[in-house]
Amino acid sequence: MKGIILAGGTGSRLYPLTKVTNKHMLPVGRYPMIYWPLNNLLQCGIRDIMIVSGTEHLGSIVQTLGSGRDFGAEFTYRVQDEAGGIAQALGLCRHFAHGETMMVMLGDNVFFGDLSDYIKDFKSGGRVLLSESRHPEGYGVAQLDEKGQVERIVESPVDPPSNLVVTGCYLYDSRVFEIIEGLTPSERDELEITDVNNTYIGRGEMDFRRIPFEWTDAGTFATLREANRLAEGRELSVYQISNQRGKNP
Fold first, then answer.
1. How many angstroms separate the CA atoms of 139 and 193, rounded?
2. In whole angstroms, what is the distance from residue 249 CA to residue 83 CA?
3. Within 10 A of 245 (CB to CB), how many other CB atoms are there?
4. 3-state secondary structure at position 42
5. Which candidate in 124, 138, 193, 218 could, as Cys together with 86 as Cys, close a disulfide (CB 3.0–4.6 Å)?
6. Does residue 165 contact residue 131 with C-beta atoms inside 8 Å?
7. Is 244 exposed, middle or buried (0-12, 13-18, 19+ CB in 10 A)?
8. Nearest to 199 by CA among 166, 161, 152, 155
9. In this structure, how many other beta carbons lie within 10 angstroms of the beta carbon of residue 20?
10. 22 vs 9: CA distance, rounded Å
11. What's the CA gap between 124 and 142, in Å, rounded?
12. Where does residue 157 rank: exposed (0-12), middle (13-18), buried (19+ CB within 10 A)?
């Protein structure tokens, strides 16, 4: 399985902090934000990782993470020339994935638990991880049928059909790139990851797992504060791995 971290976007909701640096370099606890999804991938035993970011601050990410050697991994970098949506950024990873399954992490999502058990049996189709949220209207929200099964993902609904939201961890097989090629840009002129997920749902090839531990995105001032509150005092194994190899992150 390949690992992908999507760390693009303009970071406009965190301006003017993002005038200085890529939002994924902002601190969450003791670490740059991007360390958290990287830690998740390494915990799952994934060592071949592509990182996608924009042109403006990619250099700071490369300077921070390097080749991956200090983490016992191998990093590949790809530039997203313009903010065209999560699905558009994922589409840049086609040759890197090379037909394998992939674990895709959003660079501004912070999971306070080990994701290993939620990916180990994945073989084909798609899988998303769900979490209960007090404010589901800001996310992709799971719409459930009479049997409690997810029948659709609704993006940023005014009247959310449930409190179950889609987190920023996605598992896909290589057919995801064919789906992305067939997408139509949304009203925001972006290729939406929700449309990818709904395509898999429509085919009957998407499954869902609920995570029992805390999670948040960190893409706004409010959620960045929450992420830092939850991260207080927590240590990451990625930090220990890097230190053992002689580099203090």
1. 11
2. 28
3. 11
4. helix
5. 193
6. yes
7. exposed
8. 152
9. 11
10. 9
11. 21
12. middle
Give 217's strand partners. Answer: 109
Cis omega (within 30 of 0) for bond into 136? no
Would you say 207 and 127 are in contact if contact means Cβ atoms under 8 Å apart? Answer: yes
pTM of the model: 0.93
Placement of tokens 């060592």 in the chain: 47
SS3 210: strand
Per-residue pLDDT tens digits for 206-244? 999 999 999 999 989 999 999 999 999 899 987 555 555
Q: In this structure, are strands 74-80 and 102-106 parallel, antiparallel, or unpaired?
A: unpaired
With tokens 């007090």, the residue in question is 134
pLDDT (tens digit per residue) in 72-95? 999 999 998 887 899 999 999 999
Q: Which domains does the chain have, with CATH numbers?
A: 2-244 (3.90.550.10)
- The two three-digit tokens of residue 114, written as one number: 């080990």
Contacts of 183 (CB under 8 A, 6+ apart): 87, 191, 192, 195, 196
The structure tokens listed for 16 are 């003017």
Quickly tell me which residue has 């993002």 as its tokens.
Answer: 18
